[in-house]
Design a protein that fits this description.
Low-confidence stretches: 1-12
Radius of gyration: 20 Å
Strand order of the largest sheet: 5-2-3-6-7
Shape: elongated
Number of helices: 9
């Protein structure tokens, strides 16, 4: 089992959210307040069940607060017959919500690492993505969180994360710029220090090297 001596910020944040969580009745009443603020009557037939549906949807949208990202990666495998080449999971679709407007962020993530003795089941990479995506987020933070957690738990020779996403807080409101996406990246270890490793990763996910600048 992989261990990390660093504090589990994700777990602490999730615990804090559980402690401060209001009751379901309070959450539903908050939805009724917003409906009234929008100018409608939460008591009319079409809206009577809306508070319940919204609360259930929020539980699904933000289930990442209930998960410990480090625990998701706890089970690793060492019997790899010496495999030490790049492992890439690409084109993983995700849905998140921005912490500024609670508007959807929809995009795709590419995650890679260079193993050092240990590998993790590929489904765990997808679960790690969802663990952070299913929270109130900004894309830059989510990109760093995924990469940093992989580095802390697996301690590989390098980690690379690229996220390409559309933010409805700017496509459906505000500046109203549809068909716009933002690309963020986090390169650690060999992906940052070795240009050839970074180029190989970007080629695998179909991006030219000039598209993504490395970040520490």
């Amino acid at each position: 089992m992989a261990k990390s001596s660093k504090p589990r910020a994700g777990a602490a944040r999730a615990s804090k959210q559980r402690i401060q969580r209001p009751s379901r009745d309070e959450a539903e009443e908050a939805v009724r307040t917003l409906i009234r603020w929008a100018g409608d009557d939460p008591g009319r037939e079409g809206l009577r069940g809306t508070p319940d549906r919204v609360v259930r949807a929020y539980r699904e949208f933000f289930r990442g607060y209930e998960q410990d990202p480090h625990a998701l990666l706890a089970r690793t495998f060492q019997e790899t017959d010496g495999y030490d080449e790049m492992i890439v999971l690409r084109d993983m679709r995700f849905e998140s919500h921005c912490e500024h407007h609670i508007a959807p962020i929809i995009g795709r993530a590419h995650i890679a690492y260079l193993p050092h003795h240990r590998v993790v089941g590929i489904s765990k990479l997808a679960r790690l993505l969802d663990c952070y995506a299913k929270r109130l987020q900004i894309q830059e933070t989510m990109t760093a969180q995924i990469a940093n957690t992989l580095q802390e738990v697996l301690q590989p020779r390098g980690v690379a994360v690229v996220i390409d996403a559309s933010h409805q807080c700017m496509t459906t409101r505000g500046v109203h710029k549809p068909n716009t996406s933002m690309v963020t990246s986090r390169m650690l270890g060999a992906f940052r220090t070795d240009p050839s490793t970074r180029r190989e990763f970007l080629a695998i996910i179909g991006l030219p090297p000039s598209t993504v600048a490395s970040s520490s």
